[in-house]
Fold this sequence. Notes:
The structure is a single chain. By secondary structure, this protein is α+β, with helices and mostly antiparallel strands. It has one domain (about 5-100): Fe-S cluster assembly (FSCA) (GMP Synthetase, Chain A, domain 3, 2-Layer Sandwich), CATH 3.30.300.130. Helix content is about 25%, strand content about 20%. The protein has four helices and three strands. Strands 1-2-3 form a three-stranded mixed β-sheet. The protein is elongated, with a radius of gyration of 15 Å. The protein starts with 11 loop residues before the first helix and ends with a helix.
Amino acid sequence: MFGRMSTMNITESQIWDRLKTVIDPELKLDIVSLGLIYQVTVTPIQTKAGEEPFVHILLTLTTPGCPLSAVFEEKIKEALDSLTGLDAYKNTEIELTFDPPWIPDMMSEEARAELNV
Length: 117
């Protein structure tokens, strides 16, 4: 499907840019500005089709009981799947963590201003 494509065609910067398009449906701000993404890594994996990019995203939520985990996972994969050379539904892992716990200080300055925090 992808041939012998180098993972260098998919960069962490591209992933971060796509993640900025994922909007929290309750707060109406993107998940990057909210400080919900802790880490993004892109590594090569060998498949029958050749070398493909594998994306790992470390994500948190504003609270452990937040019901949006599955919503974010689908929205993230949908946003990343439009990157040429990445099958986000197959080669993206979204790891949920609460270490460290999210606090409002993790939001961008603009997001804090928008939410009056």
